[in-house]
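User: Sequence for Alcohol dehydrogenase below. Tokens please.
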Amino acid sequence: MQYAKLGSTGLDVSRICLGCMTYGEPDRGVHEWTLGAEAARPLIRQALEAGVTFFDTANVYSDGTSEEIVGKALRDFARRDEIVLATKVHGRMRPGPNGGGLSRKAIMSEIDHSLTRLGTDYVDLYQIHRYDHDTPVEETMEALHDLVKAGKVRYIGASSMYAWEFSKAQYTAERHGWTRFVSMQNHYNLIYREEEREMLPLCADQGVGVLPWSPLARGRLTRDWGAVTERSTNDAFGSRLYLESDRSIVEAVGRIAAEREVPRARIALAWLLHQATVAAPIVGAAKPHHLDDAVAAVELKLSGEELAALEQSYTPHAISGH
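Assistant: Structure tokens for Alcohol dehydrogenase:
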């Protein structure tokens, strides 16, 4: 495993982040394909043994049970000071007023609920899961700053939004002397590269580390075009993200993987790891070989010709994932 600084901070993170949306009780929340504790724990342990120190979850994943499973496993298998634990806030956790969003009330309530579920007294990276258009950005940024000063949060990060929204939040924090975001978790992979237009240059300029979600395009980059899995069959959100024109890129991944005699996932992840702003792709792992491929991708170096072949067929997409 290799490690890198998260943006311009002094925080070291493994070049692979284990995305923990995969872990949670399948009868809770909206994802029926998740793995419960018994199936998830061996994978979390495997990740730790491979040198992964960076784990990302969210309060909303499987109605909080992802945080419970991940927190318990990390307490059992790792030393708290040696891991970087990230979670998120924004999604609706209960019906009625103040059940979600980024108001001061919601943020202050949800961090305590997350800490209880995770079984820790702080999180290393607390991320806003989306932009909240119904709450003044000043209210959100001050509340997050107060969590840092209270010791409940070490760093703060953001997720998918427009570049102007991210810039506004950063400017607001700087203007008031509040804590700024150090990371951007956004939708970025070989078949969705719209972030290269504005968000990634902004992150490079501001020293913000990028943590791509869906780095394998919901698995589309790992299999033949048109092949289906249990998750893809039940993934209504993912079915809206990609286009028929993406087929040529998927085929290019397959050709290079065949020439290299490696699984396709390694090629797609290696491409992301070649991008200067990317600190760590967030990789979900439902099977042991998913982790094997992710870890191996860190060492895989693509040639200039291979990078060009992977990129040349890209076609613009409508903005998605915000």
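The domain at 3-218+276-293 is CATH 3.20.20.100 (TIM Barrel).
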